[in-house]
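Lab manual, section 2.4: Encoding a predicted structure.

Procedure: take the sequence of the chain (53 residues), apply the prediction step described in section 2.3, and record the output as structure tokens. A sample record is shown.
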Amino acid sequence: MTVTMTPEEEARYRAAHELDRDTRTYDHLAEQLYEQLLGAGVTDGWWSHVTVR
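Recorded output:
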């Protein structure tokens, strides 16, 4: 999956999620995608393991 953000979009995303300067946007997005995909798979029984790189 590819997520493209302009600098302005990234700044808004970081502000909305209250990310501090030590948290990489990429790491936060990966965690969010992982949680959402794993939750959907487990809830619906489609899969039980997810890897986000």
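Check your result against the sample. The first helix runs from residue 7 to 16.
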